[in-house]
């Protein structure tokens, strides 16, 4: 038997704050990329994904993942919104690079950052379809 993924409740109206964060991170991701700050671009893409996941989960179910492992947030997204499985692969591809980008002594190349940006943009485009059109 698979255990229930850890979660904590949030007021559904707070989704908008997570969406705003996702948009801000995404904007900064793009700015950093154009300024050749590839690590900052990648990390902002990662945070945009995490905030996008939270926005959808809160709006749809009033919860966020309470796990310290961000991959569990993707699992919760798939569990609660099964039609998002294909799009969740974009989120997972980015989140799996978090430790490498944030904690390792290597730097992101332009192509590394661009790959993260593409996945982030595709995922956030899907997020928009799961939220009110006026958000």
Q: Mind telling me the CATH superfamily name?
A: Nucleotidyltransferases  domain 2
Q: Could you give the count of β-strands?
A: 2
**Shape call:** globular
Count of domain modules: 1
The CATH topology is given as: Four Helix Bundle (Hemerythrin (Met), subunit A)
> Approximately how much helix is present in the residues?
55-70%
Number of helices: 6
End-to-end Cα distance, whole Å, is 38 Å
Q: H/E series, N to C?
A: EHHEHHHH
Main CATH class:
Mainly Alpha
Poorly predicted regions: none
Strand order in the sheet with the most strands: 1-2
Task: Bin the strand percentage.
Answer: under 5%
If you average the pLDDT, what whole number results?
93
Alpha-carbon Rg, integer: 14 Å
